[in-house]
Amino acid sequence: MRSIALAIAALLLLASCSGDPEPIEPGRTKPGRSVTPPAMPSAAQSKSPEGQVAFVRHVVEVLNYSVRSGSTEELERLFAPGCDGCGRYIARVNSDNADQGHVDGFNWNVSKGQVLNGDRVEASVNADAYRRTDPETGKLTRVEAASYHLGFKLESQDERWLVKELYVPESAQ
């Protein structure tokens, strides 16, 4: 039952919302946190299906880094302008790390990735259990481990991949 609730939370995070996303303060890092962003692997730069899957794996590693550090600067470099789901994820990272907020133990990993229609990669993502401190109340909660199915629409721009759309595939809804 908790997995269903977590999947719904992921859907809400990635689903379209009315109006424009909240403005984002780029690159915020919570004081006292020093985490090094993951380096882009050379395989993730290849203009092949394998390169696309490697890029999605790298994006997920940077999502982890952003949650752990509170910094979204590296993540923003991987997202195309106008990607609403991407903007909502960045806003969530910023809000989870604001004030008293803190996330400990957050880790997603891609267990499987598949290229569809040339520009879409659908990935099975396993999420470890983690602890989250509410930014407003300071209340600590535990979030259970879960599995998700996420979609990444990619575009090649200036000899690199960018995430143009972050979504939950219909097959996972």
Tally of extended strands?
A: 7
CATH C-level class is Alpha Beta
Calculate the mean pLDDT score and round it.
83
For the biggest β-sheet, the strand order reads: 2-3-6-7
So, CATH architecture?
A: Roll
CATH topology: the name is Nuclear Transport Factor 2, Chain: A
* Gyration radius, rounded: 15 Å
Helix content: 25-40%
Number of helices: 4
Uncertain parts: 1-32
Order of helices and strands: HHHHEEEEEEE
Q: What is the global morphology?
A: globular
How much beta, percentage-wise? 25-35%
> What structural class do helix, strand and pairing data support?
alpha+beta
Q: How far is the first residue's CA from the last residue's CA?
A: 15 Å
Tally of individual domains? 1
Largest sheet geometry: 4 strands, antiparallel
Summarize, please.
With 173 residues, the chain is an alpha+beta fold.
